[in-house]
Specification:
Enzyme class: hydrolase
EC number: 3.1.11.2
CATH topology: Deoxyribonuclease I, Chain A
Number of domains: 1
Strand content: 25-35%
Cofactor: Mg(2+); Mn(2+)
Distance between the termini: 6 Å
Structural class: alpha+beta
GO biological process, one term: DNA repair
Order of helices and strands: EHEHEEEEEHEHEHEHEEEHE
Organism: Marnyiella aurantia
Number of helices: 7
Radius of gyration: 17 Å
Helix content: 10-25%
């Protein structure tokens, strides 16, 4: 089974790219972030024609998450994180597919620092941490997948010194990610490739993709019940180079 995560940076504007990627790589499940489309404008019919059933949380202009599946309709179990009822941002969608619980998430960026956006990011992280602890102790097969907007270590960014004051790389943000993983989650890509240079995002500016000046901010965290099934992982880096593509590349894992 191949499960992918992809920050599409606008599901309708990038639809030809997404459909081409689905056709060429055929993931069984695809978690999408940053839809930038209201609920009624999600292209469900196009995905269905491509063989994928979908559930999604839209939001006008910003955010938005979706889960596509070609192995059965995803069963929604949660459409947001507990702890802040007034937070209406579409950033968390938890589903069940077969024996897997899959959480598709889009963690806030947090820039500029300091400020309310960074404060919101840290509160969101705290809420994710609390809910993830409940999931990791459930003894179920759980996957947290998506754009975490965190570069966990210096290996995960091309020039760490340039991001010392960035909300994706501040010590307290990396500590929050470390604490989350410390609950018992496994970083799927780093588990298989502990020392390799792996990036999932390249800015549109200064020919970042061409220079491979990237960062790794899209992650798979696996519960201990899933880890024995992990047999492969990677980044579809070439998709980032396609015409009118997102600034992220799809990331995937393969399970037995």
């Amino acid at each position: 089974m191949r499960i992918a995560t992809y920050n599409v940076n606008g599901v309708n504007g990038r639809l030809p790219v997404i459909l081409r990627w689905l056709k060429e790589t055929k993931p069984d499940v695809a978690c999408l972030q940053e839809l930038k489309a209201p609920q009624e404008k999600f292209p469900a019919a196009d995905f269905l024609a491509a063989g994928y059933q979908a559930v999604w949380l839209g939001q006008k202009s910003w955010n938005g998450v979706a889960v596509l599946s070609r192995i059965g309709m995803p069963e929604i179990s949660r459409t947001g994180l507990p702890g802040e009822p007034e937070d209406e941002a579409s950033r968390y969608l938890e589903v069940k597919i077969k024996d897997l619980i899959i959480a598709c998430l889009y963690l806030p960026n947090g820039n500029p620092v300091p400020g309310p956006k960074f404060d919101y990011k840290m509160r969101w992280f705290e809420r994710l941490d609390a809910h993830a602890e409940m999931l990791i102790t459930s003894n179920k097969k759980v996957i947290l997948a998506g754009d975490f907007n965190v570069m966990p270590t210096e290996k995960d960014v091309y020039k760490p010194e340039k991001f010392a004051k960035d909300a994706l790389f501040l010590p307290e943000v990396r500590d929050a990610f470390k604490n989350l993983v410390g609950q018992g989650w496994t970083d799927g890509l780093r588990h298989l490739y502990p020392d390799e240079t792996i990036y999932t995002f390249w800015d549109y500016f200064r020919k970042a993709y061409e220079r491979n000046a990237g960062m790794r901010i899209d992650h798979f965290l696996l519960s201990s019940e899933v880890l024995p099934q992990l047999k492969g992982a990677g980044v579809d880096k070439d998709v980032r180079g396609w015409d009118k593509s997102s600034d992220h590349a799809p990331v995937w894992i393969e399970l037995d």
